[in-house]
Specification:
There is one protein chain. By secondary structure, this protein is an alpha/beta fold. It folds into 2 domains: 3-171 and 207-232, 3-Layer(aba) Sandwich (Rossmann fold), CATH 3.40.50.720; 175-203 and 236-271 and 287-300, UDP-galactose 4-epimerase, domain 1. It has 8 helices and 11 strands. The protein has helices at 12-23, 88-107, 140-158, 181-190, 209-222, 239-250, 276-282, 290-300; strands at 3-7, 27-32, 48-52, 71-74, 112-118, 162-168, 170-172, 203-204, 206-208, 228-231, 237-238. The two termini are 32 Å apart.
């Protein structure tokens, strides 16, 4: 892989992927929304060209670079948090934008399209999440991700582009969203607050962003067309243990109020990735312990 295109680059995975591709001397075209306050995160680097292009502009995006690219990474997605996860019209638009991204990939000469799905595609499942695990999404976000994965695969094959779909479980790291468990808990502990939490009985799979980025780079180089890969650490621990690890690093004297917040109506209680296909196909496995990742986030603070 010599050149790549990235949408949604200012998120936790996208920013880590930019760093990973720079380390491996990959030239990048980064598509970002004009006016976004997050654009300042994108580093100024000889390997990076930044181009303004919102999701609704992908359809008309033309290749005026004079270059051809190898891999198109599509991370951008609207309406991802809170009540918006059930905004059906917004997610119908997201499916169209994902298809528009495939057509843009064709115009830029990409040989492969890699899309970012979600554990929300599975719904509630009490076992290890495999690519072939039946999907029963319970909100518009998960339904649209599942549909986007299926439709972009078919469209990419029509355009003679290789296609890989990924389902991300829980990636954490610098540049994470402000409302995630990791980011919000760190902020509250830094402010010397006493966080109110659920009981923390959920079994959860957390993966550090740099490990995720390495997986995405290797998928662009070695991933097998037509496959779906589950992006996680492959290990599940009670959420309470993760919270206690964060407390011990950020503010050891803090009291955590477990059980103060009830579980949501459709609370997912178990997520854990089967990463055997990632190991077999691209030789990847995670290397960053959760406590190491939290310490790295604190260095960025």
């Amino acid at each position: 892989m010599k050149r790549a295109i990235i949408t949604g680059a200012t998120g936790v995975v996208g920013m880590a992927l930019i760093k990973e591709l720079i380390k491996n001397n990959v030239e990048m075209l980064v598509l970002c929304r004009e006016g976004s306050p997050k654009n300042g995160r994108i580093p100024v680097h000889p390997l990076i060209t930044k181009k303004y292009c919102s999701l609704n502009e992908l359809y008309g995006l033309q290749n005026d670079t004079g270059k051809e690219y190898d891999v198109f990474y599509h991370f951008a997605w609207a309406a991802t948090a809170g009540p918006d996860r059930n905004n059906m019209y917004a997610h119908a638009d997201n499916i169209k934008y994902a298809l528009d991204a495939v057509s843009a990939a064709k115009r830029f000469g990409c040989r492969m399209f890699i899309g970012a799905g979600s554990q929300a595609e599975y719904g509630r499942h009490e076992g290890i999440l495999k690519p072939e695990t039946p999907c029963f999404p319970e909100n518009g976000y998960g339904m649209a991700k599942l549909c986007a994965g299926q439709m972009t695969r078919e469209y990419a094959h029509q355009l003679r582009i290789k296609h890989i779909w990924t389902r991300i479980l829980s990636v954490y790291g610098p540049n994470d969203g402000k409302n995630t468990m990791v980011t919000s808990l760190i902020k509250k502990l830094k402010n010397r607050e006493t966080p109110a939490l659920t009981k923390g009985e959920q079994m959860w799979d957390y993966l550090y962003s740099e490990d995720a980025a390495r997986a995405y780079r290797l998928l662009g180089e070695k991933g097998i067309c037509g496959k779906t890969y589950v992006i996680g650490s492959g290990e599940a621990r009670p959420l309470k243990e993760y919270m206690e690890t964060i407390r011990d690093i950020v503010y050891p004297d803090a009291r955590l109020e477990f059980g103060e917040i009830p579980y949501s109506e459709k609370q997912v209680m178990y997520i854990c990735a089967d990463i055997s296909e990632l190991k077999k196909d691209i030789g990847w496995e995670p290397t960053t312990d959760f406590s190491e990742g939290i310490n790295e986030i604190m260095r960025h603070y």
